[in-house]
Every structure is written in structure tokens, then in C-alpha cells.
Write a structure and sequence with these properties.
4-stranded antiparallel sheet; 0% helix; single chain; globular
Length: 121
């Protein structure tokens, strides 16, 4: 079993920055692609960014140039650096991962965290 726990969310004024973290535990060797999703209030959950085992990254058009995904393999931790926050970035942010052998895409994730709230005013 793989467990994912997000942290780092909070309330911040527009233009500020946040660094979200996702700590992974369990059978982490069985995972490959890792990603961040978000769900604004009253809207559907949407793909934000992903990072593959080789370090290749992918971003949704809405967050390019402001969001940066990274990982620290030694700490089994995934990160999402968010700069120049906008009110429309307000959402519950979730981290996710896929089983090994699956391509990094915006859908089809097997493991999910409980989420961390980001509120921009």
C-alpha cells in the first residue's frame, strides 16, 4: 500500500508564493508518474502538473510559468512551488501517483492524498 500526505497549503494574498509538499510512504518502488491536481470550490478536479521517473515534466496551460513541480527521491517527497498566486488558484490541491509501467498523463492515477487547501485573496 502507498500513502500520500500533502502539506504546505494556507491562505495568502495575491502575488505571494507557496510550496506544497507530498510525502510518500509504503511501497514507493511500485510507483512511477507523480502528479498534482486541484479542485476549485464548486468545480471539477483538474490536472495541474506531473513528473516522470526520468524527471520529465508536464503542466496544464493555466499554470505554466508560475508552477514548478519537483521531487526529492531521497526523502520520498514531491513538491509544487507556486509563484505569483492568483485568486483563481484557490482550490484543494491533491498529489497522486501511478503504478509502474503507466505513462504520465492527466488521467488514470492509482494513489491519492487527502489534499491541502490553498486560498488566495
Amino acid at each position: 500500500h502507498v500513502q500520500l500526505v500533502e502539506s504546505g497549503g494556507g491562505s495568502v494574498q495575491a502575488g505571494g508564493s507557496l510550496r506544497l509538499s507530498c510525502a510518500a510512504s509504503g511501497y514507493t518502488s511500485s510507483t512511477s508518474c507523480q502528479a498534482w491536481f486541484r479542485q476549485p470550490p464548486g468545480k471539477e478536479r483538474e490536472f495541474v502538473s506531473s513528473i516522470d521517473t526520468d524527471g520529465s515534466t508536464m503542466y496544464a496551460d493555466s499554470v505554466k510559468a508560475r508552477f514548478t513541480i519537483s521531487k526529492d527521491n531521497a526523502k520520498n517527497t514531491l513538491y509544487l512551488q507556486i509563484d505569483s498566486l492568483k485568486p483563481e488558484d484557490t482550490a484543494m490541491y491533491y498529489c497522486a501517483a501511478k503504478w509502474v509501467g503507466r505513462r504520465c498523463t492527466s488521467v488514470g492515477y492509482d494513489y491519492w492524498g487527502q489534499g491541502t487547501q490553498v486560498t488566495v485573496s
